[in-house]
Amino acid sequence: MSYYTHLECCECGRTHPTDRWLGVCSCGRSLFARYDLPRIRAEVRRESLMHRPPTMWRYREFMPLGRDEPVVTLGEGYTPLVPLGTVGPAGGLHRLFLKDEGRNPTGVFKARGASVGVSKARSLGVRRLIVPTVGSGGSAWAAYGARAGLEVAVTMPVSDAPMIARKDCVATGARVILIDGTTTDLFRMSQRAADRYGWTPIIALREPFRVEGKKTMGFELAEQFGWELPDVVLYPTGGGVGLIGMWKAFEELQAVGWIGSKRPRLVAVQAAGCAPVVRAFDAGADACEPWERMDTVVPGVKVAKAFADRLILKAIRATGGAAVAIEDAETLATQRRLALEEGLYISPEGAMTVAAGFRLRDGGAIKAHETIVAFNTAAGMRYPHLVRDDLPVVRAGDEIVLAESPRSDRVAPATG
Amino acid sequence: MSYYTHLECCECGRTHPTDRWLGVCSCGRSLFARYDLPRIRAEVRRESLMHRPPTMWRYREFMPLGRDEPVVTLGEGYTPLVPLGTVGPAGGLHRLFLKDEGRNPTGVFKARGASVGVSKARSLGVRRLIVPTVGSGGSAWAAYGARAGLEVAVTMPVSDAPMIARKDCVATGARVILIDGTTTDLFRMSQRAADRYGWTPIIALREPFRVEGKKTMGFELAEQFGWELPDVVLYPTGGGVGLIGMWKAFEELQAVGWIGSKRPRLVAVQAAGCAPVVRAFDAGADACEPWERMDTVVPGVKVAKAFADRLILKAIRATGGAAVAIEDAETLATQRRLALEEGLYISPEGAMTVAAGFRLRDGGAIKAHETIVAFNTAAGMRYPHLVRDDLPVVRAGDEIVLAESPRSDRVAPATG
């Protein structure tokens, strides 16, 4: 027994049955899972969630799995909202929170989509997944794939593949293949291999289940803020699944009567060196032009043109949101400040969203006492190359010197 | 208003006031925080916890902070219990769970102790902490220290200091000092620097607050299992704070009437190359002899002789537990199996505890259907050096080959 009823095309509205794996609609666009929301409204009370374990599966009624379909879970989701009580007020934002997705299994928000996607793949008989990724999606799909006993191949650009992502994909048994080419090569070659060998490609919004996992971020915001959504959500935007997922979540929550009509302004945050959504938003366009030369240290936003670009732009505009591009230097400076002043060593993607909050505050688009949520999508320790550590060594028996100095200085080794 | 009443020596029973920072008793032994448990019993109901956010601070009444003392928190604790449904039954353990402490801030269980210790340090006016560490304690104390605006110095042995620990201590602004010497040198030199410069040394059970953080693992086990404790707890044991903390937690929970008299058998797990607790346990001794030549890839258990060795041995024996030493090869093989078959890429410390469960099962000390909890103390991604990743590179335009092969094989690059 499930409330999941069918798949529906986000563009042409065509409906499809739920009994087999389907990537996209016959028209080529993204599919959304749909539910019997009136029946959820009649049968489920939000207070009943309170007794469930704090993972994203507490929203099981809004998930595309029947009661007899086992869930592949590592205890993902229900991540904390950490107040930025030092950096926030210093930048004029008095109610600024970080939703710390780095606390998910594998240290990355992609765990949410992978948990739903792998659960559904296993239950529908899909056995082999190929995951082209520019960021850390591979880590999550490899881990959940291993848990479900599926075969997973992860393809990454050799120039960008982060060390930690490579290592944990290998650890959890994925076949990891580095591609010496552009991200366009990456996706094309992976699709070709998928077609040739009969593997299932896993690409943002070219399968309908990842977004169902990501939408739980929206459910959590509602529950964590007492069913009154925040004023602004700042989200690092590559493929855009998180933004679209939250937007979908809010629609579903309103349909069942758990929240009202208020929506947060959704803000897509990108790196200045790869900002196709910002460019389209500023130009008033409905779709993105592919970004030509990506140049940024923020791996998670290296997407030249999101497959669901139209949905991203629609969600931003429908909520009165914005799209903001941040220079790498500002992202890295914000990352450093959050670590030094808040004790939060987070991903550059996450730091970028906080920087965007201050940018919008400076420009007057956010007010001082609005409730703002910035998303950190991964743990900082996934990016060790961004920290220099030329450290002093003191020999056994020598003195450790702890002279007075500002916090940011380093202690000098004693000369014995 | 707080239920925290005084500090009490674990050996001589002497009591001390709570209004200043105190490391150890005047007799030199560990101090425990004590509470007005009868009043908690009368005034607090366990059902009231259910409405609180899922962090370790939901047990605030059992914490050594008054209502007016602000908590330094990054949303730590309430980590998931992940069933080991594949590896467990294959090894004869049908109810085996991993308590995944790698999901804490900084990816390590030490966040719990640091959250309480730093909160208390700040509230008592302590401004400078020096943290000698062989494992990842530095990462946690550096992060919480940054959040509280304290000065933190982290000292580590140059031979062992894990790359990720070095990096995130630097990121959060700690002074990191590498010591070219033994762990004995490390502790002696750090203590000397602390005395000379007036910094406060942070060493397991030589300050009374870390154990208060760690004890919340015991509270969580009780709550997560519906206030009926599991049969066996497997815990990687270096300084032993976690074991002692859980033992203390169970005493407190029984005193307030939230659990009965049943205790899990507490099992201290060590590496064969550094197993002072196992040696003392097997010899029937009350205290440990210092381990002479530490030789293990498991950093978290590299403690030659825990300061609280007598308490560790007491807790194990009082609960009918055991002490088990695991060879590194078995630890690493178990780590690999957990990643490949459960999707859990965890620390070697955590893998060691799972291996110990199977060892005890084989020897008959654990029965097939008992409820067993193994603790993983850190995220696997903190140990990238344990994974080899010689990966194939495919040139742009070449074919990706996805031939049939067992999961553990690697794909070969096409020569096309």
Summarize the topology.
The structure is a homodimer of 416-residue chains.
Chain A: E1 4-9, E2 15-16, E3 31-35, H1 37-43, E4 81-83, H2 87-90, E5 95-100, H3 110-123, E6 128-132, H4 137-148, E7 151-157, H5 163-171, E8 175-180, H6 183-197, E9 200-201, H7 210-214, H8 216-224, E10 232-236, H9 241-255, E11 265-271, H10 276-283, H11 309-318, E12 322-326, H12 328-342, H13 348-362, E13 371-376, E14 393-395
Parallel strand pairs in A: 5-13, 6-7, 6-9, 7-8, 10-11, 10-13, 11-12
Antiparallel strand pairs in A: 1-2, 1-3, 4-5
Descriptors:
homodimer, 416 residues, 13 helices, globular, alpha/beta, four-stranded parallel sheet, Rossmann fold, 33% helix
Describe the structure.
The structure is a homodimer of 416-residue chains. The first copy, chain A, is built from 13 helices and 14 strands. With 416 residues, chain A is of the alpha/beta class. Chain A has a domain at 81-107 and 211-386: Rossmann fold. In chain A, the strands form 3 sheets. A 6-stranded mixed beta sheet of chain A has the order 4-5-13-10-11-12, sandwiched between helices. A 4-stranded parallel beta sheet of chain A has the order 8-7-6-9, sandwiched between helices. The relative contact order of chain A is 0.13. Mean pLDDT of chain A is 94; it is low at 408-416. Chains A and B meet through helix 4, strand 7, helix 5, strand 8 and helix 6 of A and helix 4, strand 7, helix 5, strand 8 and helix 6 of B.
